[in-house]
Prior knowledge:
six-stranded antiparallel sheet, Rossmann fold, Jelly Rolls, alpha+beta
Amino acid sequence: MSNLRLPRLISDGMVLQRDRKNHIWGYDVPGRNITVSFIDDVYKTVTDPNGRFEVWLEPVPFGGPYTVTVCDDADESFTVSDVLVGEVWLCSGQSNMELPMDRVKDRYPEEFDECDYPNVREFKITEDVDFTAPLDEVRTGCWRRPDRSYLGSFSATAYFFAKELNILTGIPVGFIDASLGGSKIECWMSREMLKGYDDKLAIADEYAPKAVRDAVNEANIKGMDDWHAMVDAMDEGLKEHWESDDTDDREWKEITLPAFFKDTEIGDMFGCIWFRKSFNVPAKMAGKSAKLWLGTIVDSDKTYVNGVYVGQTDYQYPPRKYDIPEGLLREGRNTVTVRMNCEYLEGFPGAVHSAARFTPGKEYKLFDEEYSIDLTGEWKYRVGAVTDVEFYRQNFVSWKPVGLYNAMTAPCHKYTIGGFNWYQGESDCEETGLYKDLFLRMIDGYRKEWDDETLFASIVQLPNFTIDNDPCSEAWQRMRETLRALGEQIKDCESVTAIDLGEDNDLHPVGKKELGRRLALVAAHFRCGTDIEYSGPRIEKSVCVKSADGAVITLSMSHVSDGIVIKAANGKGDDLKVTDMYIVDDAGNHLRAAVSAAKDKLILNVPGLNRSAREIRYCYAQSNSGALIYNSEGLPMSPGIYKL
């Protein structure tokens, strides 16, 4: 057994940061002489009393593949092969950063056929926590290329970023994916970064003992299992096998789907409901394999076709996409049966506001390459069980302060990187007052730990989203504005606009390719020296001319490329009219402006403005209602509050 050992990050396929010193470290018997060879240079060191060694490779330009050879004076050695030198970025945040390529495969099927990008690499760290101290090394992960075997597990946002940056610059790109759905910013911060937030540090202390974490996890499993067992025992549908193909549903009630149940006779309830729909299959489709899409369902479901189980999903967010095997569909009448659980009146923990539903605006269909059968419209339903007990609200250990940082981020500080992509904020919308300070502490802490005051940070603004938000709340847009302002305030930092990349009815939009492109444009411009447009139009100067009827405000804009473009987005504003631009006067009145564009200027006609204008509010809402403002490169103006 070899005594010489290298960490997971230093392994075959790794990407080293170009034009900077790169840290190579490892472990061996104390006092051993270590030699590290890279390209034409040889570095020598000796293991310390703890058996640790390290060297710093001199900066080299991008290129490869190379090898890194590490050997000791006991004739033990490692050769790390297929090493590239390029851009290395940490990609972190919550579910929209974690969302894998498998979830966007139907949107971008060509990506799986054309994924031969040997100069793109991913190092994925799986969910891990430690509340005692930062780990020395990550406990999971390896460097992988985006081939057909692994692409599906890659972060979609990070992959599209890396691929586009490689295409734009020719520079190899490696990204470290340290992300987790539902995580708050405090999860990705150290104790030092959270100094003074005694309440958050007390929570970290509470979860430090393994016995406490194990007990919480066991309680989560037992609580969920007990609720399901209770409902299953009560469910008349399970007893009578309502999933059966020959179930008599003539006495079942009718409902039009998709719909929110609160808007129907079902109302709010805990328990389970069975839904059935009959549909006709043409002869040429019978017997063939097919796909069944049922949008998204709140909360969980188990689905059958002609009495045969075809799939299930255990919580609300994933799209219901089930495969129908050959031989199951028959010519003529067929049935789809869905047994769904109504678990929370306020949806999955972490949602701002959610309601039981078959989500409106999603696709409900059964289809193959030739035929498609619409499954929206009239369904039948019957309540299987009703209880007054809400589903067990899990206590997610991984969502506690410090834990993810210690186990997933801190071990990466030894590895030289060039930048940091951050897509997070959904889970912190109710605490936007704290978020600015927390982020400033976090980025300052990261730069200190990486010993790089110029470590670049790209922040993704929250996209458009409405369905689970309280329509009377401004929490979503406040968080978006906070993220935008941080991008302006912090040196070597940019925020990336995503107001047109969301889906009003889905917390996890699949349009990640364009988001990756926008992140790549920022990195190419600021870190790779590429002369390329990276931002949508920005306000540089305003001139207000008043009249008896109101005022005209002319905004001189930068980042307009070949001119300002007003166009529809998210299926809204087909008449190319901007309806989300307001002027706030010094009395607090909000006056809608009529917007037109002329090359590098926006002209705002504001009827009724007879006081001083205080600020512009552009698309300061959960989603846009009309057309949006772009430049000719397809980059949108950021929503926000702009002082005049």
